[in-house]
Amino acid sequence: MLSFVEMQPYLPIVLSFVTATLGYIVGIRTKKFERLYSHAQENLKDICSPMFHELKKIKREESSEQREELLKSFFEKYTDSTSNVFKLANRFMLSWFYEMEEEFIGFLKDRETEKWKSFWYKFEGFYTMLENEYYANYDLVYRDFRWMRSIWKGNSLLRIVQEMIRFLYEISVFIVIVSAFILYFTIYDLFVDTDLIPNGSIQIAIMVTLFSIVIWALMSIIASHYLSMTKLDSKKSVIGKFFLKRFPKVFSFYDKWLGNQPKWVKEKIKVPEMYQKEYTECDKKS
Description:
Elements: H1 4-7, H2 11-60, H3 64-78, H4 91-110, H5 113-141, H6 145-153, H7 156-192, H8 201-222, H9 224-229, H10 238-246, H11 252-258, H12 263-266, H13 281-285
Helix pairs in contact: 2-3, 2-5, 4-5, 7-8
């Protein structure tokens, strides 16, 4: 294994490479986040917010006749060729939406109670998913809004201090990530024996990692105001949302739970009364 003295001539090259790599990764990450932010803002404005509030209006409607008319208007609007429904950016939800539409069309043809119930279970499932999507995009778009508003209420000196605390906290997070990466590479070298890391580096890497974690913990306490202002208020865990969006097939039980629910789930869903349409003689002949 190379000694530290033998490694010294290569340290500037290694540091330059690490710095350039980290700079590239951070740059790519920033561009991706800006693109994500733009899409979330567009999604929230053009589709999630209007659709979510229309569904809330439908759910609140007590008149079965008026509720059915609202549903007709809803599907006519979002299945039109100029509809923004594609901006949901979630194929699982899009498929669910079109399945829900088919359920509603089937109900309108036969007007059977069971078909109405089947449609409403789909409706409740779609409403739940759209609500989660709405708040997820809202949290992303307005995450820093409360923080910026809170610091701009204070004086200039306090604003500078708060921004400095935020900067130091983000630096502490970055240092923890880098330290963990170096520790992983050091442990890997120890077991694989690549002779790229100087002797005794494992102890230094562990100490640096532990020290960086302590600094991060202290900065988390100091930056508690910033963290509380930017905390995401989500009803779903990050892991749950990740699997739902990235692995919809793995999350197939979600479909069963919301669409073909077992009896104990259906009993908790309050299905509103269907509109009992009075047929005229012309309707019966047709």
